[in-house]
Design brief:
This protein is α+β, with helices and mostly antiparallel strands. It has helices at 9-16, 18-47, 50-70, 126-133, 151-156, 164-167, 195-200, 235-246, 293-305, 318-322, 343-349, 357-362, 366-375, 388-398, 444-457, 472-478, 482-490, 494-497, 502-505; strands spanning 77-79, 99-101, 108-112, 117-120, 138-139, 174-180, 186-189, 210-217, 219-220, 224-232, 254-259, 265-273, 281-282, 312-317, 377-384, 404-412, 425-435, 461-462. The protein starts with 8 loop residues before the first helix and ends in a 6-residue tail after the last helix. This is Delta(24)-sterol reductase. Residues 45-221 form the FAD-binding PCMH-type domain. Keywords: Membrane, Oxidoreductase, Transmembrane, Transmembrane helix. It catalyses: lanosterol + NADPH + H(+) = 24,25-dihydrolanosterol + NADP(+); 5alpha-cholest-8-en-3beta-ol + NADP(+) = zymosterol + NADPH + H(+).
Length: 511
């Protein structure tokens, strides 16, 4: 970050010594917030008070929308949640000019152990859900790994996890949505009730209605994940293994890979088990003093390169595995606290990690934002799994950012914005690129646009939390707007209340 021009002493300190602010201010604040929210959520769930309050909160959303209707509908609508509280590293400019609707819904409403479903409000986080469900021996089929990802964000945007090659995206494990519509009415939708709305909500980015609750499928859970590590020093061999394992008739329950260079990486496959076996050791990777997970994976690759060719098997506690990338925010935290993985720091301060992304954004000076624009890539591109190797070549040429996260997932042939070529489903891969690009000639807009063109050409998709440099025409080529447009035209006041999706995600409305 050095060399960036700053206007004030405070901004200079925030840029050059951001790690000091993170350690002395943000980590203690994050800890207090985590303790308060955990205790509060536990008490509310145990007292079963959330369902009684839910209807009141829904009525309050209705009241706010009816006031907007009476006021002449002169502005668009959005949630009042500040953009610094979201997981995206960007700020939404439209929040300043839209009418902000307060949708303060943070509770797990009901766990139905008979039907194996959980009903929760949109601001419930993945960490909150996994913590609530674990004592019941239950889990979501798809648990996106960062603690602070919310149900609402994963529905309106999308979510993927290493079990998605079996269950699909987060939207595919949702069975019912409750929304307050732009005319102030409350609507529930499912595959059999208001199905058009049900299929159009995912990826709609809050442009059809305000989500107030979601019913999600559950599966029985076991205590551990038996995880195998398979290092590779050939992209073609790793890609082949990745495709074959993802497309097996009876695949492993969890599949992912980390690439540490264009030709080297580690393929990982896991399954739930109840006991630690004799073929591996227990590795509680979520303990506060534990080495960051991606660093552990990198060590397995180095050992392989040094001739230690035995297959490594580890047994990881279930929640530790689900949230394995949380403490290091994948690998983004190493650019903010460069010594965060040092053993001394981990043992002394690891229990404070990670800082809340929301607080990082809140204290981010404009200079840092400009630096992210110019020299940082945060993208998840979703492409058919059969072009994985070509996609990596493209990403290497345009970005050269490592590690790269690879996660396979099914897209089911259902109505909505995602298309499949044929059949009941098609296997895709999420290519997650987060970090400082080292590619020669990298330029944020032109390089990203070339990657977007590659994705569109190969009938892939771009996650909406990231910067989108496509034109409106290209965006509509990437996503199927047929059902979405039908609803926008038929739902009362919808066009008055919300912009199109593109109007909330393209780079010109974010900073």
């Amino acid at each position: 970050m050095s060399g960036m021009q700053t206007e004030t002493l405070a901004e200079y300190i925030l840029v050059e010594y951001r790690w000091v602010i993170v350690i002395t201010v943000l980590l203690p604040m994050s800890l207090l917030w985590k303790i308060w929210s955990t205790v509060r959520n536990y008490i509310v769930f145990k007292m079963n008070s959330a369902p009684k309050m839910h209807d009141k909160k829904v009525k309050d959303v209705q009241r706010q929308i009816k006031e907007w209707l009476k006021g002449g509908r002169s502005t668009k609508l959005c949630t009042a949640r500040p953009s610094w509280q979201t997981m995206s590293f960007r700020h939404a400019l439209y929040k300043k000019t839209f009418t902000n609707i307060n949708v303060n819904m943070v509770d797990v409403l009901e766990v139905n152990t008979k039907d194996l479903t959980v009903r929760c409000e949109p601001l419930v986080t993945m960490g909150q859900l996994s913590r609530t469900l674990e004592p019941l021996g239950l889990s979501l089929p798809v648990v996106p790994e960062l603690d602070q990802l919310t149900v609402g964000g994963l529905v309106m945007g999308t979510g993927v996890e290493t079990s998605s090659h079996i269950y699909g995206l987060f939207q595919h494990i949702c069975v019912q949505y409750e929304l307050v519509m732009p005319d102030g009415s409350v609507v529930t939708c499912s595959k059999t009730e208001n199905p058009d709305l049900f299929y159009a909500i995912p990826w709609s980015y809050g442009t059809l209605g305000f989500l107030t609750s979601v019913v999600i499928k559950l599966v029985p859970a076991k205590k551990y994940i038996r995880l195998e590590y398979h290092p590779y020093t050939s992209l073609s061999e790793l890609s082949l293994r990745f495709r074959q394992e993802s497309l097996k008739e009876n695949p492993h329950q969890f599949i992912e890979a980390l690439l540490f260079s264009k030709e080297s990486g580690v393929f990982m496959s896991g399954d739930m088990v109840d006991e630690v076996g004799v073929d591996g050791k227990l590795n509680p990777i979520g303990n506060w003093y534990s080495e960051w997970f991606f660093k552990q994976v990198m060590r397995h690759l180095k050992n392989w390169q040094q001739g230690k060719r035995n297959t490594v098997v580890e047994y990881i506690p279930l929640r530790h595995y689900y949230h394995r990338h949380t403490r290091s925010l994948f690998w983004e935290l190493q650019d903010i606290v460069s010594f965060g993985n040092h053993p001394i720091f981990r043992y002394l301060f690891g229990w404070l990690m990670p800082p809340e992304v929301s607080l990082l954004k809140l204290t981010q000076p404009e200079t840092v934002g400009k630096l992210y624009d110019r020299a940082h890539v945060i993208q998840d591109m979703l492409v058919p799994i059969d072009i994985l190797e070509n996609a990596i070549e493209c990403f290497h040429k345009e970005f050269e950012v490592y590690p790269i996260w690879l996660c396979p997932f099914k897209v089911f042939n259902e109505p909505g914005q995602l298309r499949v070529s044929s059949g009941k489903w098609q296997m895709f891969v999420d290519i997650g690129v987060y970090g400082v690009p080292k590619a020669k000639g990298f330029e944020t807009v032109s390089s990203t646009r070339r990657v977007e063109e590659f994705v569109i050409k190969n009938k892939g998709f771009q996650m909406l939390y990231a910067d989108t440099y496509t034109t409106l025409e290209e965006f509509r080529q990437m996503f199927d707007h047929t059902l979405y447009d039908k609803l926008r035209n038929s739902l009362p006041y919808c066009k008055d209340a919300f912009p199109e999706i593109y109007g909330k995600v393209n780079k010109s409305v974010r900073k």
